[in-house]
Amino acid sequence: MTDPAPVPSPAPRQQPSAREVDAFCMQYAPRAPGHSAVRDLYRLLCNVPEGSLEDRLQWVERWMQWLRERIPAHALVDASEPEASAADTRLALMVRVLEGEPAMRAALTRLVATVFEGSRGLKLFAQVGLPAGQGFFAEASDRLARSLLPAPPEPGKLSELLLRLCPNPDDADWLARLSPARLAQLAALVGEPASPEPMPAARVRADLMDALLLLAVQVAALGMAEDVRDRSPETSFRASPFLRMRLVCDAVLARDAAADTLRDLSQCVADCRQVVGSVSRHLEDSGVSVDLVYRLERIRRGLERMEAIARVLGAPRGEARWREAMALVSDLLRRAHADRSVVELVKRNMRMLARKIIERAGHSGEHYITSTREGFHAMVHSAAGGGLVTAMAVVAKMLLSGLMLAPFFSFLAVGLNYALAFLLIQALGFTLATKQPSVTAATLAGAVGEGARGERLASLVELIPRITRSQLAAFMGNLGVVAPAAIVFALGYQFITGHAFLSPAKAQATVASLHPWKSGTLIFAAMTGVMLWMSSVAGGWLENFVVYRRLPEALAHHRVLRRLLGEARARRLADTFQHAASGLGANVTLGFLLALGPLVGGFFGLTLDVRHVTFVLGSLSLAGTAMGPGAVLQPEFLAALAGMALTGVINFVVSFSLALGVAVRARDVPAREALPFLRAVLSHLVKHPRSFLLPPKEPENDVLRVSAPPAH
């Protein structure tokens, strides 16, 4: 057998002469025959390739570059032509040239038919921009690899061709601004080749149909999952719109997207959205799972894509269809670029994580916001108890720091000391001021994120003074008791033992370590603020975990517990566990985070510490008692007091800002509304400054018993 003769490559086309270029320009641009757009277009159309698919795609790339040039081809024939964008004027020029040059039009028509015949659009229409269902780390590594490694050519996929022709994310907006009327004119000239050439429109329409069916199968599978069905009890299994989604799409395909089948599809999509909304509303009561939120997002995005495809299929030919098609393509391009971004992946997953924890933190925050004078005074008394327990924890911390323990056991002992103190505060119903900001911020975001804009403004203006004076009451109670309690203990210890609780060197070192600019106090205070926020995140996560896994119900019906405690006590234990879960997670986490900072710093050779305002004041009180009354009036001690005050401010600002940012992101509060909210709050501060510091003289109408809105 002899080898087949090689296929000769097509001979290169001869470049047009200068005289031919000038004649062409005089014909199609008599008012500007030297215009670069006309000359470049002529050279392009004279060199339409007829070789491989890759050669044709390279020509399409060059044409896209010509179309994106910023120099408009305006008023080349008639000075009265209406103003248009540069791309639209170039499209108009190309339409005019193809109408007058049949040979060029025929060559370009063959190229378009070949490109679409050799390409498939199922991945573009059914996968690009939709969550892939991979885990976070698998998807992140895949995106990172694609951004760092060269990609193999895939000329047969429209998904890769779109990114090849539009490599910049800004190209999506550029595509959306192209004139549908001009595109329809161009498609009418080059989109209908003579038989037996394949029809590009038929090829794309078939891909759209296939994508619609594939999306229907995927969305139906996600919507019929057990956890979705459990959270939409008002919809029976047989009546689920996800169950009939496949049948509706089969009818669309069988009747070539007839108008009545598309109406049925639109109704089915609307019904599926209602089910998704019902599931979202039940998330607050039954707990949130990142996986469930992720799948609900996939369902929403899949339904949106199906609607966009249906609009293209149902639009009449011509300008209307091109308008819908370009809206779809620009959205696909925007999402295709986002699919390659690791940053976008992190943002999406952080939003889901925020959604998972913020509702629970918002509920906890309600208990830290007072409305009346009685509530304000109760907050002071509750915080006073917290200050007393904190003073005991400060003393225990000083004792533990004097022991020569190995780093691990020192971390364990200090962490348990903090955690047990915080748990004791929770068990006795006391309050710790620095725990308030991270949970009240979630409640604040709930007020910002629900209702009409006017209602949100009114809620915010009323809620922020409540938060500030409640925080002030907590600080007053904590700081007003922790210092006297520490001093009383130090004096009692000195009276019993005959020497100070802290040695002079230890007391002086404590004071020096709290100096606001001669030590790392301010940095440590900010780090502690981050830990305070992280503890609220842990508390929200644990409460959500308990609710989602239905642990209280499991405890209430546990056979061993019911046998030991009885049915009523087992149920009370389950209710207590559910109520205390958030505080348990937050308090234990905060305790060990505060102990972990110095340990991590020592591991890396860094001087790291934590600065919690109530512990700082307790330590400073012990040091001042050891140094004597005269020492507390010295500049170094007064500077340490200033460091303590700044520590409280930084603790509050950092934890509140982080919690508010996450809560706002979780509730999709628009950033543009920040300025009106700020103006409203400042106006209220100027008119009623007292409301930010002290409770009202008369009881307020408790119209803003804020509760976290249902997840959407």
From TrEMBL:
<feature type="transmembrane region" description="Helical">
    <location>
        <begin position="408"/>
        <end position="428"/>
    </location>
</feature>
<feature type="transmembrane region" description="Helical">
    <location>
        <begin position="481"/>
        <end position="502"/>
    </location>
</feature>
<dbReference type="Pfam" id="PF10136">
    <property type="entry name" value="SpecificRecomb"/>
</dbReference>
<feature type="transmembrane region" description="Helical">
    <location>
        <begin position="522"/>
        <end position="542"/>
    </location>
</feature>
<feature type="transmembrane region" description="Helical">
    <location>
        <begin position="584"/>
        <end position="606"/>
    </location>
</feature>
<keyword id="KW-0472">Membrane</keyword>
<dbReference type="InterPro" id="IPR011385">
    <property type="entry name" value="Site-sp_rcmbase"/>
</dbReference>
<keyword id="KW-1133">Transmembrane helix</keyword>
<protein>
    <submittedName>
        <fullName>Site-specific recombinase</fullName>
    </submittedName>
</protein>
<keyword id="KW-0812">Transmembrane</keyword>
<feature type="transmembrane region" description="Helical">
    <location>
        <begin position="638"/>
        <end position="664"/>
    </location>
</feature>
